[in-house]
Amino acid sequence: MAEKDAESESKREVRARIRARLKQLNPAYIRGCSEELLPLIRRIIQSMGKQLNVCLYAPMKDELDFTSLVCALPQHCYYFPSIEGNEQLAFYRVKNVTEDLYCGEHNFLEPRKEMRCLNPSEAHVVLVPGLAFTMSGDRLGRGGGYYDRFLRLCPEAMTLGAAMQEQILSSLPMEEHDQRVRRVVVPGKESAWIS
What we know:
Layout: H1 11-23, H2 27-46, E1 53-55, H3 69-72, E2 77-83, E3 89-93, H4 97-100, E4 101-103, E5 109-111, E6 125-128, E7 132-133, E8 139-140, H5 146-151, E9 158-162, E10 183-186, E11 189-190
Parallel strand pairs: 1-2, 1-6, 6-9, 9-10
Antiparallel strand pairs: 2-3, 4-5, 7-8, 10-11
């Protein structure tokens, strides 16, 4: 669970340490963590309303995978991120994960842009990826600042960080522009709501 204080380390050092740790994880273990967290994430989403705009992401190989929510809770509208030319994230509607996503120029699956683009103020739930989290909602991303910029545009959305135990630290180096998530879930544990 939580380990040594990371505040004294630079973001680069923490990222390197967490990336090395994630490289050692077995894909089956990552899948198992995803499957363990799915029922909890489903309950959180279902508790929020009848039809929601939910921002997901297509996982990289060391990230948890929640794309099955698109089929499991079809009453909601799902949006996946694309990096736009202005270095901003835009989220486009995805109805079918297999057909509506392709490998884009940034080497991750992103949505086809002929679908509806979400106005950030209309986002209800944002599942936020990250390399590391604290249980109090601090988050360390991959270094581009894309989610930090996007989350500033949707302050009313319920932001949720989902992580494996190996990604949880007791503290993280944070800067003024860094955006926190309102809830963090980990296999076997979840945080309270964070305002």
